[in-house]
Amino acid sequence: MTIETTTAGILALIAVMTVVTIATRFGGVFLMSFVTINPRIESFINTMASSVLIAIIVPMAFSGDAGSVAALLVTAVIMLATRKPLPAIAAGIAAAGLVRFAGFTVL
Amino acid sequence: MNASTYSYQFKPEKVRAEFFRLLPISFFVVAFGAAFGLAAVQKGLEPLQAILMSFTVFAGASQFAAVDMWGSEVSLIPLIAVVFAINSRHLLMGASLYPMLRDMPPGRRYGLLLFLTDANWAVSAQEYQSGKRNLEVILGGGLVLWLAWIFGTWLGVYFGGLLQNPKSLGLDMVLGCFLLSMALGGNKTPRTLVAWTIAAASSLAAWKWLPPNTHVVVGALAGGAIGFFWLEKKPTDTGQAVAEDGGSS
Asked: Which residue segment(s) compose the domain that A42 sits in?
């Protein structure tokens, strides 16, 4: 099934995307309202939450260029050393810019 | 008022503080929005349509993927599948906030979730790990991120040529670096480290061998399974402890 990208078609596509995205925003909470929160579920939720971050970042590092890897490495080192997010992020972005400016193309 | 049934004390003044707290990161979101706006008009969307999409969808990665599929016609099922797969991480993110959200009336609960996105969720989830209940950042932070995303899209569709190559400035890594700093700022127990190793390995495996865009959910669920089977006493969780201490000890 396809939708033509006429004005009405595009509005329909945007509406579909909106509904699907809102369903993902609401869905997890809606399903959880049927679950009794016991210590085991609580433990699952907490571990899963920080694992979401790892599962976003690690493939990002592996699929990225040298600049992305440098950004993540520098952010990690500064964050672990100083525990201050903003300097860590700023240094990471600067690292990506520098590495790319220097023209490393490893991947 | 249902103050007795719904115990979360939502502080309006804190919403404003959280708005300004995520303002710096929002400047970078403007740059992403501009990149999206540019991509969208290049793929044939009208400027107002691109802005409308950012306004109602508010999920960057899935919007980029969607306009990538654009042509004279768009296949509906693949579009739905891609948007759902990329945004399915919201399911887990929302679920992880449920212990706080359930202390709030359903109307507010789902109203807040309209603003749920990676950065404000990461702040809230990380603070929850250290015993702080912060849903204000979902609204305040979400609002500034949403406005930045719309404003950026607007810039991109009309002045996209100004931003030739955001990648050369490292701007594509802002969200990655932000999420990483949130992860590393949290509690690191041996259990967390094992869960992260499992999450990293399974997300990589899913990224390599499973259908595209499934890796976040696969990795997160695999990491969560560690928590499910390996319980650990968490004395930091003061808000929950009042209600559930009897059962957990």
From this structure: 37-107
Do A86 and A107 fall into the same domain? yes
Residue of B nearest to A16 (CA): B80
Average pLDDT over residues B63-86: 93
Q: Is the pLDDT of residue B243 over 50?
A: no
Task: Indicate if the pLDDT at residue B241 is higher than 70.
Answer: no
The residue-averaged pLDDT of B167-181 equals: 86
Note the pLDDT tens digit of each residue in B114-139.
999 999 999 999 999 888 999 999 99
Say yes or no: A42 and A83 in one domain: yes
In a shared domain, residues A89 and A101: yes
Report ipTM for this prediction.
0.89
Would you state the pLDDT for residue B163? 65
A64 contact residues in B (CB cutoff 8 A): 173
CB contact under 8 A, B195 and A51: yes
Residues A3 and A48 in one domain: no
Give percent above pLDDT 90 in chain A. Answer: 84
Are A100 and A75 within one domain?
A: yes
User: What average pLDDT does the segment B146-172 reach?
Assistant: 86
Contact B92 A49 (CB under 8 A): yes
Per-residue H/E/C for chain B = CCCCCCCCCCCHHHHHHHHHHCHHHHHHHHHHHHHHHHHHHHCCCCHHHHHHHHHHCCCHHHHHHHHHCCCCEEEHHHHHHHHHHHHCHHHHHHHHHHHHHCCCCHHHHHHHHCCCCHHHHHHHHHHHHCCCCCCHHHHHHHHHHHHHHHHHHHHHHHHHHHCCCHHHHCHHHHHHHHHHHHHHHCCCCHHHHHHHHHHHHHHHHHHHHCCCCCHHHHHHHHHHHHHHHCCCCCCCCHHHHHHHHHHHC
In terms of CA atoms, which chain B residue is nearest residue A94?
Answer: B170
Quick one: A26 and A54 in the same domain?
Answer: no
Instruction: Judge if A31 and A63 occupy the same domain.
Output: no
Cβ distance A44 to B227 less than 8 Å, yes or no, reads yes
Q: Does B232 touch chain A (CB under 8 A)?
A: yes
